[in-house]
Amino acid sequence: MPAPEWWPFHRRAKAPEPAPPSAADSGGDGTGAGGGRGVRILLALASAVVVAFGMAAIGSILAPTLLALVLTICAQPVRVWLTRHGTPEGIATGAVALTVFALLAGFTAVLIIALAQFVGMLPQYKGQLEQIGSDIGTWLQSIGVGPQEVKTIASGFDPAKFLDFFTGLLGGAFGLVSFGVVVLTMLILMPADAAYTPTLLRQLEPTRPNLVYAMSGFAHSVRRYMVVTTVLGLVQGVINGFALWLLGVPAALLWAILAFLCSYIPNVGYFIAIVPPIVFGYLTGGWGTVIAVIVVYGIINAVVQSIVQPKVVGNAVALSQTLTFFSVLFWAVVLGPLGAILAVPLTLLVRAVLIDSDPRARVWRAAIGDLSETRVLMKEESAARKAERTEHKVHHDDRRKD
Where is this region: Disordered (predicted)? Predict the structure, then answer.
């Protein structure tokens, strides 16, 4: 039974199912259809798996090399500025490399000091940690979790395991000498080679303009992302550390450093950074301190990473949230914790090589997160729907008057 004319909510006619296109997509050469495309996709996936396993196998040297590459890209404008103002090439390169390495060494020293302080004060909370583990085990048993699983979870609150973990980090810090040697060497060699980069790009541009476009865009995007993230991460870490110190949470310096490092890890970093302050806030101040920590971290994270950072970085990254989260997981598996920190720059490098350097593949930029044109189209469609609704309402009112 149709609705009466005076009824304001009329069901619209269902749109017909769209027919499949009869012609091939534009921009292709006609060889991408049928089994050929499927074979190429399978070969590409198989190659990606082989490359990922190979990168993981040499992760101990690949990770510091990639870190040095990102740092060189970020420091390149400083070296260019020095040479432009009369500093000899060798001195400018060495000064920038040593400055960056000195900052890394200073940061590592502060991290080791914070870890040492934390290891020293951890035995004070042995009884409380064991009690928390016991309470959680009792609750898990009450909801039907098996005794073996309960024992495994409760054992995670053993302070001895905390001590073994952080002592291992301190011991491993001395093993960072080889890591530091690789980074320092690369920071000396890469800037020296980077002096030829502008000329090399001009040399390649007549024959490889798309490659030059992709590499230039990659360097600009990585530089903007890393500089902005570093500055905002420092602000975030300082504010978090000061708030934790005011709240009386132990090892506030360590958790501030953790917040700074986790600012490089999109989506996941916030949850990694907040867990230790919550645990030790509960041990020292109870639920009131826990709520205060959650509020402080939540406000700072919302302001910095959800409001300030997107506005400053703009479209430099242009990766979807899903792809960004997957990239963190992927690079963490391939290269370890450093891979999670460098996930966005490494994903931008892959995008530059596979998509930005190929005009035919750039159509996929929107699918992986470059939504500048998509947002304009969505606004136009939204305005059209709004105009349609207004016209329908006016037409309906006219019919009611008649």
Answer: 1-30, 382-402
Inform me whether the pLDDT recorded for 145 exceeds 80: no
Residue position matching structure tokens 């040492």: 116
Alpha helices by DSSP H, 304-364 = 309-313, 321-335, 337-341, 343-351
Most confident of 8-12, 91-95, 260-264, 359-363: 260-264
Cβ atoms of residues 313 and 306 within 8 Å? no
Contact assessment for residue 116 and residue 163, using Cβ atoms and an 8 Å cutoff: no
CA distance 255 to 250: 9
Q: What is the distance between the alpha carbons of residues 82 and 80, in angstroms, rounded to a whole number?
A: 5
pLDDT at position 27 = 53
Instruction: Write out the two tokens for 331.
Output: 């690079």
State the helix-helix crossing angle for 269-303 and 126-142, rounded to 10 degrees: 100
In eight-state DSSP terms, residue 359 is: T
Q: 272 near 265, Cβ under 8 Å?
A: yes
Q: Compute how many other C-beta atoms are within 10 angstroms of the C-beta atom of residue 73.
A: 21
